[in-house]
Design goal:
The protein is an all-beta fold. Helices cover 0% and strands 58% of the residues. InterPro entries: Bulb-type_lectin_dom, Quinoprotein_ADH-like_sf, Secre_tail.
């Protein structure tokens, strides 16, 4: 546990074979978010599960997310209902999906019941723009997105006046997950918007905040 964006945040440390730190990352929102299990996937990346009170619908929800070898989030999903739902363990299955074990207070006979979740490999189904992390940030943040098929990607940042302040990508990208770093050095604190377009068609835009 570490105090990051607010409340309890997940704290992930990568070390070498002698235990010397290579990098560390925090993950979470404004409420409590904790991890119970982390494993290396077949492609060498990391799969992490636990619970989140920052994302999802309400209460505690199962939080499953995958990162690359540098700890950058590739995708994330939440599972749960109106009660508290928590995952304690995750493993990759032979088909490339994942199996999670934990408990649910939302489903089952009543009280806390054992909950097993089997997922698909979570290949991107559509072009998707994800929330930047960290947010708020100072002065840099990671913006990630996924593509169903290869396409010409335009990723741009605008201020609240609608003025273009930065073009982060304007090139053809392959299908899959991508991320780019936005450094706000030289820009004023405040709200900014980032917009993803693929092959000339707007896909999605999101809001981020820089606090100096």
């Amino acid at each position: 546990m570490i105090i990051g964006n607010g409340g309890k945040d997940i704290y992930l440390i990568k070390s070498d074979s002698l235990g010397n730190e290579i990098w560390n990352k925090t993950y979470g929102g404004t409420a409590d978010d904790t991890a119970s299990s982390v494993n290396v996937t077949s492609d060498g990346n990391l799969i992490i599960t636990g619970m989140t009170e920052s994302f999802g619908s309400e209460g505690k929800e199962v939080w499953l997310f995958k990162t690359d070898t540098d700890g950058n989030v590739l995708w994330e999903h939440t599972f749960g209902g109106s009660g508290d739902d928590v995952a304690n363990s995750v493993q990759q299955t032979a088909d490339g999906g994942y199996i999670l074990a934990g408990y649910t207070d939302s489903f089952g006979a009543g009280g806390k019941d054992t909950w097993i979740i089997k997922t698909s490999p979570f290949l991107p189904q559509t072009a998707e723009l994800r929330q930047n992390y960290p947010n708020p940030f100072n002065p840099s943040t990671e913006i990630s997105y996924s593509l169903k098929t290869e396409g010409l990607v335009m990723l741009s940042v605008f201020n609240t006046k609608g003025e273009l302040v930065r073009t982060l990508a304007n090139e053809k990208k392959t299908a899959g997950n991508h991320s780019v770093n936005f450094n706000g050095e030289g820009l004023n604190s405040g709200i900014y918007f980032y917009k993803l377009s693929v092959d000339g068609k707007a896909v999605q835009s999101r809001k981020m905040m820089m606090l100096k």
